[in-house]
Amino acid sequence: MTVLLEGPGVTVPDVVAVARGGERVRLTDGASGRMRAARSIVEQLAEGDPVYGITTGFGALATTTIPTERRADLQRSLIRSHAAGMGPPVEAEVVRAMMFLRARTLALGYSGARPLVAEGLVRLLNAGIVPRVPEHGSLGASGDLAPLAHVGLVLIGEGEVMAGSGTQDAATVLARNGIAPVVLAEKEGLALTNGTDGMLGMLCLAVHDAAYLLTVADIVAGLSVEGLLATDRAYAADLQALRPHPGQAASAANLRAVLAGSPIVASHRRGCLRVQDAYSIRCTPQVHGAARDTLAFAREVTDRELAAAIDNPMVLPDGRVESCGNFHGAPVAFAADYLAIALAEVGAIAERRLDRLLDQNRSYGLPPFLADDPGVDSGLMIGQYTAAAMCAENRRLAAPASVDSYPTSAMQEDHVSMGWSGARKLRRVIANLRRILAIEWVAAARAVELREPLEPADGTGAAVRLLRGCVAGPGPDRALSPELHAAEDLLGDEALVEAVETVTGRLA
Questions:
Q1: What is the structure's pLDDT at 60?
Q2: Looking at the domain 2-195, which fold is it?
């Protein structure tokens, strides 16, 4: 597969394919043509009146005119000075997403960069060369300046690239791959750095992951319903329609599908003294559904950003070069913060279901902590501690980054989005949510098996069978961490939904 980079039309699956799947990228002829047209405008303006970023300095130095013979130095100096990040390197998939998305904006033809600049980014991607981008440095206002500058540094043959667990000199790696460093011309250093591509790349990956995990959350919740001898009556379509939120309807439909025909649920449909279940069971569609609706908003923002030209100044087809604020990360920052809040709550309600499964006073006949020999064995007791610890961390991470701001560049850039920080937090929330759901899956599967001879539904049964391929069922205590990691890895491989859908049909 080769992802054709036209500029318009880039999708979240494209970003995931390039960032994670290592798919090759090719710049189209149409994109190159648009870039050449915009470049001709830049070259004409370079001989005229001062134009920001073309014949002047940057930020608070925008009133300083740069003579013609120093303009290549200006672009190179911009990359060098802005590559000021610190801390550990960000993940390779984030860097690849960022590179691909920066090439996407350049390909739209509003940045005034030559095609060879976008082609340079594409060559790095196709060669598997990943610049070392430190985690700290972006405030998300004039784009992700420092992270993008570290990418630009490699493009011009400087800086470092990732190599296994360490780094290598970029110039050496480029030479080994037959890639010549790019010598930047007017506007091109600015065009490489003035984008929201880092935070947007992380939001694209988060939207993809969250969509999968919300379906996982419904499946695992269905297992907990069976394990707790709860009812599915609250998920009935006519009841759910009384509160017509689309995400709630989708979540309830998933629960009905995975629980369809459940002998466990049928065993206590009549004659049970309980008239209703606890909120963590009964309100699952409302909480999961609200998160789905939040995800829908984040996906809309993502799709709009993937259609947007993010740079400053913009080179317009009528020959104007205009300064604007399209590089400000507020739309992405708000979406990342909002999604982090919602996903933190999905983890929180999962932890409450997990706790009920382990508490003999609320689990309706299950042994304490699902232990084989309670007292000698602790069962899954400490698994709940681990889930609670990650829920607590997610609560802290759900505090929004986008309400903060620090003025920079001598007050020229006096309001920033903190979108990079919001996206970094969101990645941690998603990783924690995946682990929390893995722990609930392990516990709920064990609880269902302890209900034998009653059998689970076909859908939930498929979830148990998949887990049993790498995690043993009820029995004496053994090291728990490897089993929890194995369940987490299965969720990372996106195997659970596929396994369940083979018997339930397509889930939302």
A1: 67
A2: Fumarase C; Chain B, domain 1 (1.10.275)
